[in-house]
Amino acid sequence: MSQPVRIAVIGHAFMGAAHLHAWRTAPRFFDLPRRPEVALLVGRDEARTRAAAEKLGVEEIATDWRDAVTREDIDVVDICTPGDTHAVIAEAALAAGKHVLCEKPLANSVQEAESMAAAAAQAAERGVHTFCGFSYRRTPALALARRFVEEGRLGEIRHVRAQYLQDWLSDADAPLTWRLDKETAGSGALGDIGAHSIDAAQWVTGQQIDGVSALLHTFVTSRPVSGSAEGLGGAGDVTGERGPVTVDDAAAFTARFSGGAVGVFEATRFALGRRNANRLEINGSRGSVAFDFERMNQLEYFDGDDPQQTQGFRTIQVTDAVHPYTDHWWPVGHGLGYGDLFVHQVADVLTALDAPEGARPDFGESLDVQRVLDAVERSAEDSSRYTSVTR
Ligand code: SOE
User: Fold this and answer.
1) Ligand 1 centroid – CA 191 distance (Å)
2) Which pLDDT band holds residue 359 (cuts at 50, 70, 90)?
3) Ranges for the Gfo/Idh/MocA-like oxidoreductase N-terminal domain (predicted)?
4) Residues 130-176: pLDDT tens digits?
5) What residues flank ligand 1, with Cβ below 6 Å?
6) Superfamily the domain 2-135+356-362 falls into
7) Residue whose CA lies nearest to ligand 1 atom number 9
């Protein structure tokens, strides 16, 4: 049997549960060089952490993340906490020689992300690797889209159209959770889901975003305070009190890419009826692709070289053994779901632990997404760039 790798997962809410599911499931489907064992689950509240550990099958718990960092027997620290704690945990873990997988976006500011990337670069010299959880890279259909770009099937990329649409904040009385607090989350829809679009667009096209022109908007500026609400818009023990929402509810921006493409991005948690519509459409000189996570097993592909009378978008069912990741799963055509992205992510991490170059995206690459988020915020703050309509 392969050598074990011992993991401490920090955080057990939505992302923590997704990662725990992934560590457990990956060795059941992938042939991995290392056998993952989640040795420790960390959460601030002891009773809740114990309950989560029981449910998610972890024997030991701790209430202080420093336990994960100081323990000799931990190899990987998996950070599933809000953004305000990423830098301090990751840097302590790297200093202690632990590999780090950190949820996205990497940090709450460029300054923090730079410091994390610098610590990661030093750690990499000692064979210690970092990874950031841009999980949608692990969607077979998006990975296929990237393959098409690399194969030249799309030709010269002209348009990138990225939308990430959710609706879990549409109700103005949904509770004030940490994702609505700038100090804790860094930003709103922009960093929470727009960051995925930025990463996916750059990764699929192989081009960097050079500049942006943006607007950010908050529709609901105060929400009911809750002591217990944790999830996405779900009910909590709300009091009559309301507290301020300090992040954006919606982000929109245009972008120029390094290879000449023009981009239009939109991120919102108010698109009523769109539950997790993470969409990316790319138009090139030879072909186009269109993806929507609500139909995650499919990729729309238009081949401009097809004879004109049969031209049209075709729907590729990205579920066959020839497609990225899918040969590890069910026999032909049975399809995957959201949780499987995290399985792919940890399989990639485990495969890369002993490889000198590590897995992608590492902290250095993820710093780049942070720089784009920062440019979007700076552009949106600069009211001189907002041109009023003259009537
Ligand atoms: C909430 O908007 C959220 O859980 C994001 O934080 C995740 O990164 C995304 O995958 C799904 O939506």
Assistant:
1) 10
2) confident
3) 5-124
4) 999 999 999 999 999 999 999 999 999 999 999 999 999 999 999 99
5) 14, 166, 192-193, 232, 276
6) NAD(P)-binding Rossmann-like Domain (3.40.50.720)
7) 193
